[in-house]
Prior knowledge:
By secondary structure, the protein is of the alpha/beta class.
Amino acid sequence: MKSAYLDHAATTPMLPEAIEAMTAQLVRVGNASSLHATGRRTRQVVEESRETIAAALGARPSEVVFTAGGTEADNLAVKGLYWARRAGGADRILISAVEHHAALDPAHWLSAHQGATVEPLEVDELGRVHPGTLRDAIERDPKSVALVSVMWANNEVGTVQPVHELAAIAGEFGIPFHTDAVQAVGQLPVVFADSGADALTLSGHKVGGPMGVGALLLARGVDPVPVLHGGGQERDVRSGTLDAPSVAGFATAVRAAVARQAENSARLTGLRDDLIRRVRQAVPDVILNGDPVNRLPGNAHFSFPGCEGDALLMLLDAKGVECSTGSACSAGVAQPSHVLLAMGADGFRARGSLRFSLGHTSTEEDVDRLAEVIGHVVERARRAGLS
């Protein structure tokens, strides 16, 4: 039985052209920092990849800083921008309450160890930060705000944030604005130059590229303090020998994902809406989380009353459906989703949730498979919860 893979938000299969681009470089030797011919050939691959990503996302090549993935890029943005502005007396970090832990945890680390004051930006029941919430937080003391960080689209519930409005408000006060666009690139139109953001995170394996590579787009004149020190690569803000094969695969995937974004998003929206309809048909009391309209094309996130998310996940897995709870685990103990809690859900609802996420390899058969089994699985999970 072929599994229905419905966890593309966690990672999506590599695109064939990205595999080809990466494989072509894996058989070649070269350090992009070396000055001899082999090094220069590798440097050419890196710089052409940088230009490809910049062109696809409306950025300048000099604004593309390669990292080892989205987590590193978020850490560089949050820590680096805080350190860069702390000397001027800015110690407040305004960050949405529903951010990915790759952005939230660095902020809280800065609070615990570096004197930062972390102020979560509240969200509504759909998981959205209202522009007025950000403006009120800034206007209390604009000079004390080191940075604002709000993700472009939520990785769990799929809600798309009003990034352009939020970035414009931060810009009024000269405050750096960072957005984690890991889930947005390839599913939504993302143009760095038009976004108003000063820093933007993206990741290779979420767009059909390899794992272990990503980028932070940094606007001209925005210079975070480095998190890694060494050879001074990447504008002297991210030292380390560049992984040229991964960079080549990453750039190829970004170019392809952006080029096909409109077509792919329309297809995924149709599949997603069908999935939502059929899950609701099978489980009438299911709750759809997130913005019902302004959400990622490939995201459907549900709470199943009377069920534990982990139990549902394992029962579905046994039936050939792969998905995610979207919640963090600590020491093997499932924790309720901080995203749903911030949206006002209680702990039972937050623990009884599943995320189904679609991607470029998703088909109607995947949705059919879920629809065939979800009703029985929920019924079984509820019986187990009562026993």
